[in-house]
Design a protein that fits this description.
By secondary structure, the chain is an alpha+beta fold. The chain has a single domain, classed as 3-Layer(aba) Sandwich (ECO RV Endonuclease, Chain A). The protein has six helices and eight strands. It has a three-stranded mixed β-sheet, sandwiched between helices. It has a three-stranded antiparallel β-sheet with strand order 2-8-5. A two-stranded antiparallel sheet has the order 6-7. Strand 6 and strand 7 form a beta hairpin. The chain is globular and about 55 Å long. The chain binds a DNA duplex through helix 3, strand 1, strand 2 and strand 5.
Length: 227
DNA sequence: TTATGATCATCG
DNA sequence: CGATGATCATAA
């Protein structure tokens, strides 16, 4: 008998236990659990599953730049799976502060801190399945392996080299093997402050860090091997 | 506006 | 048909 969870978990074990209550639920059932309405169209509810998962699991609400479970240092990410059970989209990690990125090390980088411990919550996102009938899977608590951490740092350094030179205009999603940079804004006309190549203040398209699907596919694959 | 939660939709 | 660039919703 599952019931609505809204209290922040005080331990990792409690969080994982709560995740077991979610496993196997359809999105329609999730809506009931969180006393929410199932969106009619996912087109206008892009972050809905993630937000309901936060609500159910007691993640700290809002848009604060801190982990979803601050006391546990755990970040929650939903992982949309295609008909073959593979991640079908990239994963947004965080916004990039173009104004405060000089002399940052990988250890200090917000994108790195966010990826220290991630609770992945896979769910069926195939459009072959009616939205309300798509089911949630078993959560995976993940930490980057030494190899993964190395790969991420390598991508980050390549990207930061350009960002710190004010070359954000020349950056595209083509850079980085696993970690990439893409626009993160309401639309293509949105602007945020940055420095240009001459070090002058300028306005530019806001960017965010994303993980390519290949990276999350590997996480999912490894989790099966360890079950 | 800056953050969070992401997926959409077009193009190569 | 996968990836890139664009877009949608919400909070503070």
């Amino acid at each position: 008998m599952a019931s609505k969870q809204t209290k922040a978990p005080s331990s990792t074990q409690e969080l994982l236990n709560n995740c077991r209550l979610l496993a196997g639920l359809s999105l329609a059932e999730l809506a009931k659990q969180t006393h929410s309405t199932l969106p009619v169209s996912p087109v206008h509810a892009k972050g809905w599953v993630g937000q309901q998962a936060e609500k159910f699991l007691g993640a700290s609400a809002g848009s604060k730049a801190e982990p979803d479970f601050p006391n546990l240092g755990i970040e929650l990410k939903t992982l949309p799976l295609n008909a073959n059970g593979q991640p079908q989209e990239s994963t947004y990690v965080c916004h990039i502060q173009l104004m405060g990125l000089n002399q940052q090390t990988w250890q200090q980088a917000w994108v790195n801190k966010k990826l220290q411990r991630v609770l992945w919550l896979p769910y069926e996102a195939s459009k072959n399945i009616e939205y309300g009938k798509r089911k949630i899977g078993h959560a995976i608590l993940w930490q980057p392996s030494p190899s993964q951490a190395r790969q991420l740092q390598q991508d980050w350094e390549e990207i930061m080299e350009k960002l710190c030179m004010g070359e954000q205009q020349q950056l595209s999603a083509h850079h980085g093997q696993f970690l990439q940079v893409r626009p993160k804004a309401a639309n293509s006309k949105a602007l945020t402050k940055a420095y240009d190549e001459q070090g002058k203040l300028c306005q530019t398209l806001p960017l965010g860090f994303y993980l390519r699907p290949d990276f999350t596919r590997e996480i999912l694959k490894n989790s099966y091997l360890h079950q």
